[in-house]
Amino acid sequence: MKVSVEDRQGLFKALKVEVEGDVVRSALDEVYNYLRQNAEVEGFRKGKAPLWVIKGKFRDFIQEEVGKKVANATLAGAIQESGLRPVADIYLEKVQLEEPSQKLSYSVSFEVPPEFELQNLEGLEVEIRKVEFSDELVRKRIEEIREEHAVWEPVEREVREGDLAVVDYRVEETESGETTEGETSGVIGTKTFREEIERELIGKREGDSFVLHDLTLYDTEGKPAGKAKVEITLKSVKEKVLPELSNDFAKELGLGQTWAEAEEKIREEVRSGLENLRKAMIADAVAIKLVQMHEFDIPQTLLQRELSHLVERRVRELSQWGIDPKYLDYRAIAQELTPQAVMSIKLRYILDKYAQEKGIQVSAEELQKRIEELAKAYERSVEEMREFLQRENLLPVLEEDIKREKALEDIVSKAVVKEIEEKKEEKDENT
Questions:
Q1: What average pLDDT does range 64-81 have in this prediction?
Q2: What pLDDT, on the 0 to 100 scale, is given for residue 220?
Q3: What is the 3-state secondary structure of the chain?
């Protein structure tokens, strides 16, 4: 077997593999036997066509199938011989079969991990916003709690920013004529509706209708998927009403019999949460600095996979708000989430390299502890969770996640943190 490597654009590599002898002969015999038994050739009964006729009629099929079988049998060895490490899908490109000499060559392409030098990460300098306990933080937390327990009440007026609009819709796809009807809702200004729809909704009153012609639809990858006529009828307008700070509200929250008791417990919660917040801010600042310090390309196949995962998660979140995924602007969502996907992939590569250079390992006890945490979170027994992870081959993934967390913790522990006082204008904007 001869193996040669060709550089392609970005992180793509191509392997040309030349094989001859028993492997090719065995694959040919297998394909020939299959065709002898199953091929239907005009003028011959099934299974009775001579081999020379089969070879002529099914030349392309024979080359393709023999190529697949030979590639399956030899690709792992060829990759090992090349010293490359594919990071995602491997694509079989070109197969060339020289039948008389029983030689076959095939080419595959795939992306490989980026190569980069790890920068000096000892004493990494990062800045975070200084956060100190204050009555203002308590006030903000109380407002968050009120928002969490807000109710939407109907109002008889025009739609404004921040309102909840409940609509009936009818969508007629231009090409197929297929129609879809239903009810959905969304908060104006949160991009839960398409921009074109939201723009029309503002200023409308209950019972008002409008039609959008030739509205572009998008598939889950953000690609145009045809056009449609969309009819919208505003069913109701609701505004957010926050609960009063009363003894009844304190009891509802389970924080005491009076609002004074509840406020004191919220104050304690804020105070104890500040240190956790500070740790999270430092970790985020370090992660951003790590990515900024290292310039390298990332595999585009991994980027698309990560982006697809993030978009699907965002769509699920919006669906929980009653938004029909069919009418979301997937292209805009994907564009918004691309920087997050790029950073996530780069950070993983950096932490993996750091863990390797520092010899960071995951102990059996650490892995067991994480399994126990997952079991508790998903309300399953530890044994059930371990069996699930083993069955889905997720234990190595879990171990890699823990290793990356340990790598980041190690870098954070050596970081030099400078806490910056907020400017007065910024404080005013946040109040």
A1: 91
A2: 64
A3: CEEEEEECCCCEEEEEEEEECHHHHHHHHHHHHHHHHHCCCCCCCCCCCCHHHHHHHCHHHHHHHHHHHHHHHHHHHHHHHHCCCCCCCCEEEEEEEECCCCEEEEEEEEECCCCCCCCCCCCCEEEEECCCCCHHHHHHHHHHHHHHCCEEEECCCCCCCCCEEEEEEEEEECCCCCEEEEEEEEECCCCCCCHHHHHHHCCCCCCCEEEEEEEEEECCCCCEEEEEEEEEEEEEEEEEECCCCCHHHHHHHCCCCCHHHHHHHHHHHHHHHHHHHHHHHHHHHHHHHHHHHCCCCCCHHHHHHHHHHHHHHHHHHHHCCCCCHHHCCHHHHHHHHHHHHHHHHHHHHHHHHHHHHHCCCCCHHHHHHHHHHHHHHCCCCHHHHHHHHHHCCCHHHHHHHHHHHHHHHHHHHCCEEEEECCCHHHHHHHC
**pLDDT single digits (tens) 308-359:** 999 999 988 888 877 777 778 888 899 999 999 999 999 999 999 999 999 9
Structural domains of the chain ordered from first start: 2-111 (3.30.70.1050), 150-244 (3.10.50.30), 261-430 (1.10.3120.10)
pLDDT digits (tens, 9 = 90+) for 247-261: 999 999 999 999 999
Tens of pLDDT, residue by residue over 125-148, are 999 998 888 899 899 999 999 999
Specify the pLDDT at position 59: 86
